[in-house]
Amino acid sequence: MSCPRFVPAWALSLCIFFQGAAIAQTNTGQISGTVKDTSGAVVPGAAVTATHGETRLESKTTTDNSGRYLIINLPIGTYSVTVEANGFRKAEQTGLAVDNAARVTADFKLEVGTVTETMTVTEVVGETVNTVSGELRHTIDSEQVNDLALNGRNYIELITLIPGVAVTSLDQMAMTTGLSVSNQSINGNRTDTNHMTVDGASNLVSGSNTSQINNVGVDFIQQVSVQTSSFSAEYGRNSGSNINVATKSGTAQFHGSLFETIRNDALDANAYFAAVKPELRFNDYGWSIGGPVAVGPIKKGKLFFFEGEEWKKIRRTSNPSRQTIPAPAEMNGDFSDRSTTVYYPGTKTPIPNKIVPSSLITPDGKAVMNVYSAMSKLASVYSPTPTGNNATYQMPNPFDYREDLFKIDYRLSETHAFYFRYIHDAYNIIDPFSTFASSPLPTDPTLRSRPGWNPQLGWIWTISPTLLNDARFNIAYNGQKITMYGDTWQRSSYGFQYPLIYGGIGEYPTGIPNVAVSGFASFYGPYNSYQKSGPTNMAVVDNLTWIHGQHMIKFGGTAVRDRLDQNGQAPYLGNIAFNNTSANNMTTGSALADTIMGQYYTYTEAAYDPWGRFRYSLFDAYVQDSYKVTRSLSLDIGLRYSHYIPTYTTANNMANFVPALYNPATAVSMTAAGLIVPGSGNPYDGLIRAGNGIPASEAGRVPNANSQAVLAVPAGAPRGLYPVQEQ
After folding, report:
1. pTM, whole model, 2 decimals?
2. pLDDT in tens, 449-466
């Protein structure tokens, strides 16, 4: 059954501002202006040419009856603009900086003369204050990107230069090793609402919406553009800021670079809680080259290339982590140094001298203590006393990264221009406390391997001087695999003997359980540390711009198909909690004594680690009109439509609790200890499964597809769990 959800999001914006219009987020900008003579009379029909300073590619137009001109879709860079008209001297302005989505104004006053005479104005700078649109946009140019000191060599750090940005974490290196983008709150928005793009294409992992698919090296970036508010109708997907990275292109001359950045702990101060100064060896090195290409019939000045490679090698220890673990005597059942009275389980009879008899120590209770004993040997500092925060950990945390980038720009003719850009990066990092589970103790170190690919093809078609189409196709793929590292996660290392109810159906059936002991550091096993995921985002984008009189009308649309296959990280190895709460009627009065005697408070175990093949589609369309009412007044009117299909799984292996379906009359009964009375009521009351059941073609991916427990949950919910909605 397929029951997609249609969520049209209508956005109507009306902005009144001066002299300008909006430009699509495609690494382009515009130059506009008015041409007059020295008396102030407009000059219609004047030929206007904008020439890119590095590639020497030209874009041409003519002034209208009001002496106005507009040249759109100019690749970012520095331009010179010339104006020629019969009876007047040729006029030129140079040094016009066109940034991503910039609206540069270049007005001209022509002097009477011949076109063989030229009047040139040099060193014209880009506008520092945007006076031609209502949006707020900030650009970090290539000089800032290359020259500013970035301790993690990560362009995300540059966003802190923008007004209104609040940094939520000072650990900039973590953004480099984890590709996170959830470190900045811009204009008070949540950190997960910013939209990240590269050359106008989405660069966010849809599963988390807070990490990048590719982290473009700072030496391959032309500029970073941040739009913080008052967006045009063409911008959507996320409610926060739009952050776009424009990659470098080749130029008319060959340029290359060799670079290396070095950081070393010999130059660092010690961390406050560190037992020893944290180790840091950071080497970031690589090369780049770009220039023109002349091959066969392709003449010089038509084809340009840029490519580069970058490597990052980081050898460091993790940030100091202080944890509380038992003293050696306690690991053997001697709690005499504690003030808490220790009772025989389920009684109020004290155990003499608080020393647990060996006959009451269970094999699995001893196994938990063996884990703590092994972890005490891995601590940088360990105080063998019954005190808090008696262990400090600083574990090796090495990181290896490589990125390859290639871009080619081809101007086939005056009307057709193409580009192809390819990014591939990959890294391996050993996380001593696991990648996402964040174990307090290093029982589940993981090796995170994360390759990413991002090819993009673009085509700009100048249909006529007043009609231009910009299309692109992009595929962004990230194949992440997080596997266990070392052997500290093995049951056999510590002597666990309890049988698993369902046999441990998962990637690591011999792993230790997750264990939580009240008042002491928890430790984790492989079940929620191992992860395999492969998000793929495919997008087709098309924008059509029509200049009609005083109107610049844009139509555009986006179609996105997103796929994510990922395991569910269910507790198939068991999740055990020890707590001396009064709700535990077998407690000894001490959570640690409960542990060694096997008096657990709760135990949960999953039948297997489920696999989800998640899918969703997104369709957007917009139309906007930038209407220049007068020389100093413009209206920007836009309408946007979004159609979202909720995320579903191909196997329909999802369920949800719906309050409207819950029937109190059929609810289960509970004991005073919070346990279900066997045979009372319906344990699945209020639950509903997605779709009409698990398709036969997917049954092999769902081991319990035909089990009584699964079939007892009613089916029939929309495939994505949400009904059709209109808004």
Report:
1. 0.84
2. 999 999 999 999 999 888
